[in-house]
Design a protein that fits this description.
It contains five helices and 20 strands. With 371 residues, the protein is α+β, with helices and mostly antiparallel strands. The relative contact order is 0.19.
């Protein structure tokens, strides 16, 4: 064969062999990907609801009489005890009324005593026919009227005493007292309609009030029916936008008897102890209400779950270090970053935690286990 023909053939063969060895499939470097095992734990699911605080007990302090305020006996915002004198109102009018009522009672009692003696006398005179039956009946009628007058006078005296006592305004409960609505020297007209002078708040225990959705209420009912002791409603976390020096929990004590038809929500209340006197009426709170408890839940990082037309999926790395596209069914989010997986993977399955765009089904990878 002609050497001129052989040389091009040999050169072509070498070029072909060279191209074969530089194929991309042969030069691929195995991708290193982070993988993790699912977390298996018994978890309590909860939802945070906005709410606000109210004092467990608050009472308006009112003036029930007419008169000038003589004294205000407390600094605003301080702590007062039940029975402390808060205000004094000019008692002169009611002192006069008391004296008049006492005099009226004395007169009524004298008239009753006379009517009684007269009645006894005419009854005795009737035995000797010295008086008629008509006179006896008239004497008895006068006695009944006199006794009624005594009762009325006693009632008027009690009213006068009560009104006079209202001139000294005392604290009806123990708690923190607000500023007065009226100052010393002001005139109040409280006898016809009581006038609010201030308010006392018993802040030793507060109420956290919030509302939940209709369907969440159904979940709570079902959960309590199936396992009423599974969730602790005695220590529900209560949080604030700006953390306070101490942490707080609430005890569920009230569920409204009816839903709000316009919002489809139901009001709940928790009692929150306030031992450090940090909580005040009107403060906004966040109540972390538990609604379900799942034993041995399978949890994965929520960011590792992909979505496509078939639904949710994870990339699982098998024992041969190959990526397996794995459809999964998921539940609620937990602690902001973990997601409950209800079916699709086992606790021993390694799943890809990030760089999901770099992997594909069937791809061989170098798995790096992370926590």
């Amino acid at each position: 064969m002609d050497k001129k023909i052989l040389l091009p053939v040999i050169a072509l063969s070498i070029a072909t062999i060279s191209c074969h060895h530089s194929s991309p499939r042969e030069t691929d470097v195995t991708e290193t990907v982070d993988v993790a095992l699912p977390v298996v734990d018994t978890i309590t699911l909860s939802t945070v609801y906005p709410g606000y605080l109210t004092a467990n007990n608050s009472v308006n302090v009112v003036a029930k009489v007419n008169g000038q305020i003589l004294t205000k006996n407390y600094p605003s915002g301080t702590h007062v005890k039940k029975g402390d004198v808060l205000f004094t109102i000019d008692p002169s009018t009611y002192q006069d009324q008391l004296k008049q009522a006492q005099a009226s009672l004395s007169t009524a009692m004298s008239e009753r005593d006379y009517a009684h003696e007269h009645y006894e006398a005419v009854k005795k005179a009737l035995e000797s026919d010295a008086v008629s039956k008509m006179e006896v009946e008239q004497a008895h009628s006068s006695l009944v009227q006199a006794e009624a007058s005594v009762k009325n006078a006693k009632a008027a005296l009690e009213t006068a005493r009560r009104l006079l006592s209202y001139c000294t305004v005392t604290a009806p409960i123990t708690g923190q007292i607000a500023s007065a609505t009226m100052s010393d020297g002001a005139y109040v007209s409280g006898q016809g309609s009581p006038v609010v002078l201030t308010t006392i708040y018993d802040n030793s225990v507060m109420q956290a009030r919030f509302s939940i959705e209709d369907d969440r209420y159904h979940e709570l009912l079902n959960m309590q029916h199936n396992n009423k002791d599974s969730i602790d409603f005695e220590h529900i976390p209560v949080m604030f936008e700006v953390p306070l020096p101490h942490s707080y929990t609430g005890s569920m004590f009230y569920i409204a008897p009816a839903l709000n038809s316009s919002t489809g929500t139901l009001q709940l209340r928790c009692l929150v102890d306030n031992p450090y006197d940090e909580l005040r009426e009107g403060m906004y709170v966040k109540v972390d209400l538990p609604y379900d408890r799942i034993p041995d839940a399978i949890l994965v990082k929520d960011a590792s779950i992909g979505s496509d037309q078939q639904g949710k999926y994870l990339y699982v790395v098998n024992d041969s270090n190959k990526v397996v596209y794995t459809p999964v069914k998921v539940g609620e989010i937990y602690h902001d970053s973990l997601r409950v997986v209800t079916s699709g993977i086992k606790p021993t399955d390694r799943y890809v935690t990030k760089a999901m765009l770099k992997v594909r089904d069937g791809m061989t990878v170098n798995p790096k286990t992370v926590k």
